[in-house]
Amino acid sequence: MKSFLTVWVLSALLVLTTAESCANPKVQATSYTPADAEVLTHIAYIAEFTLTCSNGATNVNLFADINGAVMPVIRSQDGSKYQVSWTESLKAAKKGDRPIRLYDEEGFAAVKRILERDEDPSSVKPLVQIEINYPGAYTGPWMKSEHLASLMIFLVFYLAYSSKNGLTA
Fold first, then answer.
1. What CA–CA distance (Å, rounded) separates 106 from 104?
2. Which portions of this protein are annotated as coiled-coil regions (predicted)?
């Protein structure tokens, strides 16, 4: 039992010491949201960004706060890029900017404590914030072609029937 506890403590210390803190972060971000949602049920938001620190830190673990939900940010294998993504239902997706607040491990711990107390996590200052713009997506024509064809058939039938009655009367 002692050896298991020792291994667990050493591995926890290894994880904590491998991450670095970032001073004066600078972010360059690109984002993607689908423009055509005609066959979709959910809208995907994808943000990819690079993080540059003035102290040269390259091994920074990040966490993202998106609409009150905190999730880990994925880092590429070479460690040069980060990515965060999520989905929303088509009805919940509103046009406009979506803020993504990024936290390092210290900020994540503070946000986690605040969320456990059911308080607003926006009181914790993020390491950096990026935004995804969702301009909206095309969900299809206002009137479907089969409905328009049915309406046209009804209109042609009505005109033919009324013309017939006008001639016979």
1. 6
2. none
């993202």: which residue's tokens? 64
Spatial CA neighbour of 102 closest among 59, 134, 58, 61: 61
Ramachandran quadrant class, 96 (left: phi over 0; alpha: psi -120 to 50; beta: rest): left
Cα(30)–Cα(13) distance, integer angstroms:
34
Checking if the pLDDT of 36 tops 90, the result is no
Determine the pLDDT at residue 8: 44
Q: Which two tokens stand for residue 12?
A: 């926890």
Q: What is the pTM of this model?
A: 0.71
18 Cβ contact partners less than 8 Å away, ≥ 6 residues apart: 59
